[in-house]
Amino acid sequence: MQQRLAAIRHTIEQACHNAGRDASDVTLLPVSKTFDDTKVLEAAALGLRRFGENRLPDIRQRCENMPDQQFEWVMIGHAQSNKARDVARYVSELQSLDRESLAEALDRRLEQEGRTLDVLVQLKTAAETSKTGLEPAEVVTFLQKLKDYPCLQVKGLMTMATQTDDEAEIRRCFRAAKLAQQQALDAGYPVHRLSMGMSQDYVLAIEEGSTELRIGSALFGHRDYA
Fold first, then answer.
1. Positive or negative CA dihedral for 173, 141, 194, 89?
2. How confident is the model at residue 186, as a pLDDT?
3. Looking at residue 197, what is its pLDDT?
4. Calpha distance 146→189 (Å, rounded)
5. What pLDDT is stored for residue 163 in this prediction?
């Protein structure tokens, strides 16, 4: 894993250099979903403390299994409104906020917990029906609505590109998210973070303006969904 992490960081630096960007502007979010706790601890030994997960039950289990570890758990998967209590208790950041009903439920639970939560608004830029999120054109209107929920600290946007080998299609998805971010910034919303790019497409994401890469298998190794 140490070698894989070094290779990823080298690739990030090279891609940023080629794109005329500062490598310090791009962060890495290790995605630990489906990997066991020993892999998380191995990553932690390399200095990584913040991990992305798709499912709330998995985050809750991680917290119970490793109560002495000061990890930050980032929810990157679809969140149900009726699970707002667990989000408020266990999650340090939510990157998949995509509807007002979820915002309302989260804000209510967070107020009860006496805390705030950093969130990213998820955009649907891919044509696949399996993908969720707001249409890019809806972002500014949605951000206006989120002003009613003070426990939610909106930091940026997130998207997933179409799962394809077609580089042009992947870039189209990333460019749509970047354009939506710029429109939101122009409207006065400080959505400075742009989470996009995974193990198979993160170089393209850097070239299109990503500030955070969600990388799993390239870091942890082959993922066995079984």
1. negative
2. 98
3. 97
4. 11
5. 93
SS3 (DSSP) at 68:
coil
pTM: 0.95
* End-to-end Cα separation, the chain, in angstroms: 22
Place of tokens 């990503």: 210
Structure tokens at 139: 């972002």
Give the SS3 label for residue 35.
Answer: coil
Give the percent of the chain with pLDDT over 90: 93
Exposure string for 123-153, b = 16+ CB within 10 A, e = fewer: bbbbeeeebbbbebeebbebbeebeebebbe
Tokens of residue 11, six digits: 């690739």
Distance CA 171, CA 174 (A): 5
Contacts of 47 (CB under 8 A, 6+ apart): none
